Amino acid sequence: MNARGALGRYGEDLAARLLTDAGMAVLARNWRCRTGEIDIVAKDGDALVVCEVKTRRAGAFEHPMAAVTPVKVDRLRRLAEIWLDLNGGPPPGGVRIDLVGVVVPRRGAPVAEHARGVA
């Protein structure tokens, strides 16, 4: 795994812990199909959460959350539909798309920000 891949994996590990600490159950990580990949699929009460994780080193040009474009959101919606088709349909609480942005400083603890229902 290269440095970029390791950084992304580190951010996804932090995000999974953040979601679990918030009371969610992680159902899948790095779920893939032909259309793309969902970083984390979780259950929050009776809602399904499709979570995109973006990780950047401190000092990067943009905040990690700025990297989620309308095109990416559309892809996440399509991926959520495929997941639901393969896993029994929509849950009673519906589906939500969340985003976790992780900034890793040169020194000190990383900062993770969780935005619920971004799309």
TrEMBL record:
**Which SUPFAM superfamilies does this UniProt record tie to the protein?**
Restriction endonuclease-like (SSF52980)
Q: Which Gene3D superfamilies match?
A: 3.40.1350.10
Question: Please, which domain of life does this record's source organism belong to?
Answer: Bacteria
Q: Which Pfam families match?
A: UPF0102
Stored InterPro entries: Restrct_endonuc-II-like (IPR011335), tRNA_endonuc-like_dom_sf (IPR011856), UPF0102_YraN-like (IPR003509)
The record's PANTHER family line, in alphabetical order, gives: UPF0102 PROTEIN YRAN
Provide the family line: Belongs to the UPF0102 family.
Protein's UniProt name: UPF0102 protein ABZV61_20140
Organism whose genome encodes this protein: Streptomyces sp. 900116325
